[in-house]
Amino acid sequence: MYDYPYILRHNCKDIPEKILDVVYVSNGEKNANLNWERLQKLCPRAKRIDGVNGRAQAYKACAEVSETEWFLNVFAKCWVHDDFDFNWQPDYLQNDKHYIFNAHNTVTGLTYGHMGIIAYHKQLVLDCETWGLDFTLSMPHTSVPITASTADYATTPYETWRTAFREAVKLTQQQDPQSQYRLNAWLNVGNGEFGEWSMSGARDAVDFVATGQDLQLSFEWAWLKETFDSLYN
Fold first, then answer.
1. Would strands 21-26 and 47-50 be described as parallel, antiparallel, or unpaired?
2. Domain ranges in the chain?
3. Which pTM value belongs to this model?
């Protein structure tokens, strides 16, 4: 009923919806080309952005190539499910926001928005000048209860460790029960070949947070590689 005062009535019944652009973003992930080829089969209209340094800069590059008000951002760590509907539409009657789809993590057993597809509002991304540890959550956002993909991050020891480290840093800053439950899973559940590296990444993140250093360091690729090498190489 909240929509009712804003509904426009048209005599024409053939008003086409403008399908959203789909933009794939990658930056050296081991399975980036494999997951891109899969996405092309599922959604031939997808575009690709590759090799942009900096997470915010990569998101802004994706927004710049989008020609629609929202765009579906698919990440290199997304193994997109066969049944995901790329014709999905946001609620245009609500305030501008990002929509976060769920991803299933086979290593931790968790299913939530981390590493999931995101429908970004183009202008919100382009206009964003300051952000916290999580670029997406720094702007209006909501969750979509659809599991659109499987998280494909456990590909090498370093990539697995890096992903777990970054996510655990963010989770340590959230005191709500759900975030603490997720952090506990990252720390203690490690299924599959690289499961130990995933748990190590989360545990090293907790140790890093305890040092009191600048948490933004955890999103610098060079610093992460140096930290990993200092610990394990």
1. parallel
2. 14-151, 157-232
3. 0.90
Per-residue pLDDT of the chain (233 residues), as tens digits, is 667 777 777 777 676 778 999 999 999 999 999 999 999 999 999 999 999 987 889 999 999 999 999 999 999 999 999 999 999 999 988 899 999 999 999 999 999 999 999 999 999 999 999 888 889 999 999 999 999 999 999 999 999 999 999 999 999 999 999 999 999 999 999 999 999 999 999 999 999 999 999 998 987 888 999 999 999 98
Q: What DSSP string runs through 96-160?
A: S-EEEEEEE-TTT--EESTT--EEEEHHHHHH-----SSTGGGSSEEEEEEEEEEE--TTSHHHH
CB-based burial label for 188 (10 Å; 0-12, 13-18, 19+): exposed
CATH annotation of 14-151: 3.90.550.10
Rg from Cα positions in the chain: 19
